[in-house]
């Protein structure tokens, strides 16, 4: 029976015969309005494209499994971690950040790293990047920053001037800029890079104790990066290198894996730690909070249809499960609203009914109606709560422990006020102590190449301002970049020396 031919039909199920020839008045005459199949095909074709993501527009995805290898139940009651050996199905999407859907996979850009865990207590979306920090620390800045990574409103071209102008005016970006300008900014596809939840989240255990946590995915394939020239050469050879690499690796049985590890900070430590642990531009040094093994994530199944499963996939850091929670991280707080809102705009109010986004376990709520409601819409059941007819209850056992806010005053606080304005120590440590001499040289060359693109009447001002940031982070870094740009370094010495005094 499986080999029997199937009838060609419309979406409503009507069989039809003419799929290539439009009905016309005579062989050479005009077409007839009554050819419904012609209109059906063209109208659907006109609507095949949904709005692309404002960021992370170009991406790749795959299914897999997460397996628990170590017991962390002392920190969290989340059921996906409750037993060593337990497996949870996942869907994962990688992406570039700033480019459009047709852009090159090897652009110098952060990479999105988003994982959807299909747990028995709901879907958990861990939505991060391949970097542990970000360019800004307040969500009010996010749209402005992204505009600088897109196209100039006059030229419709990418603009190094816009990028470096913004970065030089926001020194909190320096840590992420230094990572981006190293060869980590051009990873070899998606299999050979780490992933990070980036934000600080919380874990809650069975006793109701809260811990602050950062999530790390360490590539078990090792780390591989293109040099700047190698990335440019790959753009000329294969715009879709990362998509092709991931797809073919999984098709050929070379399943990529990442080891999930966590950093755990006791809740009370946040008040006294030397850096704000909820600042997205900062890391927690491993010597203070070592990595703890959790499990292994393996990707082992390619989607059957890219649009249905990758393009329509939707991730939101608001989607957590019992035992995993939020934190006062300002950027995380902003994303809790903006991500689901973006999905409703792009995919519709019922985007969580799309199969790739749907929780495979029981879902009970009172959301009804809206475009593309395809699950029966609750049938005859009540659409309000509380009611006298169904058996849905709010389970108090899932309540999170209270969080003390110390009678704080609601106001608009400067995110870079004294105490939160050290933008230079961690980038300096990254350059001096983490990077090898070879990585230092590559990073300097990448920065010099990128900054040579700055143009216009404000060029000198932008270059000088950004150089001051590099000098404050590390004297040798600033000197090397200044030499590469043929800038006289003498004028920077008083500023740089006072910064290190």
From TrEMBL:
Biased composition (Polar residues): 1-12
GO cellular component annotations of the record: cytoplasm
Keyword annotations of the record: Heme, Hydrogen peroxide, Iron, Metal-binding, Oxidoreductase, Peroxidase
Record domain Catalase core: where: 9-393
Active site, renumbered: 56, 129
Catalytically driven reaction(s): 2 H2O2 = O2 + 2 H2O
The keyword Transmembrane belongs to this UniProt entry's keyword annotation: no
Binding sites annotated in the UniProt record for heme: 339
Official protein name in the record: catalase
Organism lineage: Bacteria, Pseudomonadati, Bacteroidota, Cytophagia, Cytophagales
């Amino acid at each position: 029976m499986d080999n029997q031919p199937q009838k060609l039909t419309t979406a409503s199920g009507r069989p039809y015969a003419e799929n290539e020839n439009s009905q016309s008045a005579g062989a050479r005459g005009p077409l007839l309005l009554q050819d419904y199949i012609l209109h059906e095909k063209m109208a659907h074709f006109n609507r095949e494209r949904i709005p692309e993501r404002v960021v992370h527009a170009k991406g790749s995805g795959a299914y897999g499994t997460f397996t628990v290898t170590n017991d962390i139940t002392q920190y969290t009651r989340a059921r996906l971690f409750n037993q060593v050996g337990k497996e949870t199905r996942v869907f994962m999407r990688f992406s570039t950040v700033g480019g459009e859907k047709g852009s090159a996979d090897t652009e110098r850009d952060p990479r999105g790293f988003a994982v959807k865990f299909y747990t028995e207590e709901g879907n958990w979306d861990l939505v991060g990047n391949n970097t542990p920090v970000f360019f800004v620390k307040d969500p009010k800045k996010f749209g402005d920053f992204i505009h600088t990574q897109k196209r100039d409103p006059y030229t419709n071209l990418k603009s190094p001037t816009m990028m470096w102008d913004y970065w030089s005016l926001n020194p909190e970006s320096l840590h992420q800029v230094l990572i981006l300008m190293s060869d980590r900014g051009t990873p070899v596809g998606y299999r050979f890079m780490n992933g990070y939840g980036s934000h600080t989240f919380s874990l809650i255990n069975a006793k109701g104790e809260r811990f602050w946590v950062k999530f790390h995915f360490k590539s078990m394939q090792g780390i591989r990066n293109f040099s700047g020239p190698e990335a440019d050469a790959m753009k000329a050879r294969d715009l879709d290198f990362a998509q092709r690499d991931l797809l073919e690796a999984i098709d050929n049985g070379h399943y990529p894996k990442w080891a999930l590890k966590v950093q755990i900070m006791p809740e009370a430590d946040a008040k006294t730690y030397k850096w704000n642990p909820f600042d997205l531009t900062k890391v927690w040094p491993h010597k203070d909070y070592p990595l703890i093994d959790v499990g292994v994530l393996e990707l082992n199944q390619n989607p059957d249809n890219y649009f249905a499963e990758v393009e329509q996939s939707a991730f939101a850091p608001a989607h957590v499960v019992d035992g995993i929670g939020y934190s006062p991280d300002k950027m995380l707080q902003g994303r809790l609203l903006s991500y689901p809102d973006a999905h409703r705009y792009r995919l519709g109010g019922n985007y969580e009914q799309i199969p790739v986004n749907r929780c495979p376990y029981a879902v009970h709520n009172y959301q009804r109606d809206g475009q593309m409601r395809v699950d029966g819409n609750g049938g005859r059941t009540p659409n309000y709560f509380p009611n006298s007819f169904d058996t849905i209850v709010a389970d108090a056992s899932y309540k999170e422990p209270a969080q003390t806010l110390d009678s704080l005053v609601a106001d608009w606080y400067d995110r870079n006020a004294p105490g939160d304005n050290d933008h230079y120590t961690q980038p300096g440590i990254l350059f001096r102590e983490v990077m090898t001499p070879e990585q230092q040289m590559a990073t300097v060359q990448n920065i010099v190449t990128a900054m040579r693109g700055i143009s216009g009447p404000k060029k000198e001002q932008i270059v000088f301002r950004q150089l001051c940031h590099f000098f404050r982070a590390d004297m040798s870094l600033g000197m090397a970049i200044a030499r590469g740009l043929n800038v006289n370094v003498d004028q920077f010495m008083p500023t740089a020396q006072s910064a290190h005094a």
